[in-house]
Amino acid sequence: MLKSRILAATLLACLSLVALPAVAQDKAADGRIIVKTQDDLPRFTYQIDMKPSELLATDDATFNAFASRVEADIDDMLAKYLIEDKATMRSVLDLKGKIALLKGNDSTAMKTIGQERALEEKPDAKLTNGLRDEAMIHATEQAHASSGEVYELAYASYLESAVSQLPWDVVGTNLKSLKRSALIAGTGRLIGTAQADFDPTYEANEGSISQNIGASLIYMRYSIDRWVPVADETAQVLSKHIAANDVRKPDIWEAREVTLAESDDLPPVVVAIWDSGVDLDLFPGRVHTGATPTDTTGESGIAFDLQSMPELGDLQPLTDAQQARYPAMQDDMKGLSDLQNSIDSPEADAVAARIANLKPEETEDYLETLRLFGNYSHGTHVAGIAARGNPAIRLVYGRMTFSWETMPPKPTVELAERSAAAMQAYVDWFKKNNVRVVNMSWGGSPAGYEPALEKHGMGKDAQERKAMARRLFEIGRDALFAAIKGAPDILFVTAAGNSDSSNSFDESMPSSFVLPNMLTVGAVDQAGDETGFTSYGENVVVHANGFEVPSYVPGGRTLAKSGTSMASPNVANLAAKLIALDPSLTPVEVKKIIVETATPTDDGRRNNINPKAAVAMLESES
């Protein structure tokens, strides 16, 4: 999912904004302020006397003194605020644990690991959270050192013993993820990121950084000092364990799949992929071409560029240089996908080595290019999932342009208002062209605006940027909500998000919207088990396969990708098939069938769609 990038690119704004009025906050019995959303939390700013990249490489005493300032603010926040959201508390505790490890306070680090696990609700995370940190702590105790050959051997021994006692069917995916992190661990990329991303931001803000950058520096220092030295041992232990235990989970989806036939001669159903663009050449006979072209729209869709100005074309235009790099970057995208899924391949080996060995001066260009082509291919991949097995589908695009460069567009009031108008223009085009289903595999939140404001040196400190971001967020949120609400004849299907957090606490849009013509989708794997990344919330009422889902990228290559971005079009796919079978269905009726025929799990956390059951219900009621 293109989490936060979307509206960070297209719904940012601000030059001079009036301060928001103070809002009364509820308090707990102990006097602490009750935190209801992520935006209720305070923001912190740190004045430092060296560039972030220099701070990252400085001596332990200097860096730990900075980490202690961050720690003091965390403790002060916990003393004043009651954070009931478990995901947020886990992230706070994790940062405290990393600071403790850097300072050699292993008992504090162990305590935070236990606290985090107690807050975990997903079975796999409850067993694996803090596993590598725990191994580091036990190795330090055994070796009486936190580095060196004896320490590394003790780390590997503990990790091997720990993972061997875990139930593979529960934790296998998480262990694969940890192995992937180990394979790409490297110092050069971290230093390069600090130089390219954080140093200019520091200079733009006259020597200050937000707690977001501060936390990132702590994680980077932890990676350089503690994680990179044992990454090879981690990969070796987990590779051995995975090879011995990796039995692919049973696939529940094949038996549930519904495939419509050309011979059924079903009426066409227009489905919009509101995303980064679609390579329509890959879907012959399944593209809607009935729209009347204008100076700003095509016969099969509507598009806006990075500045929310109208633009023609189903795919984002690439420069000649970018086009020349695309074939090789497809190999890297495949390699990353294979790494994610622990598939041994030449592409996986190559991309792991490339990322792990990036030099600081190579980092920015490589990561920007990877983001560019990840964005470029996203909408086509989503479209392939939505169109699968449905000859009646007629695809159209609502192409958005996402920022891929380290420095995002400068926020302006004009851009925010233009972006809000674009949101309405997309939906107006969908309504005019009889779109029945829209898939939205993207999202944004108030906090997502703050980094761009900081990078451009806007606002006197992090607290002021939070207020500015809130105002900007509301411009986009209100416009998007009104546009969707004003299209009651269209079913909008959206991805829950990939942050393993509550979409309502994060105020994610559009996934937190509650509307009768919206359906928010969480991700499960091929066996119907909850993925570690999927976000959740009261309005996440159905789940679909979002793990290793194969589909096309521009040009026609097939790649498997994971994310709620892939789960959402699986539901859009089902919705379009139901409408093809009965065009009289309203969005509310389609939504009701999908939800009521989904299979609830015993723990009540998931409600997995069942296309065959949905079609059977439709036919029984006809």
From TrEMBL:
Protein's UniProt keywords contain Phosphoprotein: no
Signal peptide (from-to): 1-24
GO biological process, one term: proteolysis
InterPro entries: Peptidase_S8/S53_dom, Peptidase_S8/S53_dom_sf, Peptidase_S8_subtilisin-like, Peptidase_S8_subtilisin-rel
Residue ranges occupied by any Peptidase S8/S53 domain in the UniProt entry: 269-606
Keyword Signal found: yes
UniProt keyword annotations, A-Z: Hydrolase, Protease, Serine protease, Signal
GO CC aspect terms: extracellular space
Pfam families reported for this sequence: Peptidase_S8 (PF00082)
Residues at the catalytic site: 275 (charge relay system), 378 (charge relay system), 565 (charge relay system)
Any GO MF annotation of the entry: serine-type endopeptidase activity
Record-stated family: Belongs to the peptidase S8 family.
Protein name listed in UniProt: Peptidase S8/S53 domain-containing protein
Organism: Croceicoccus pelagius
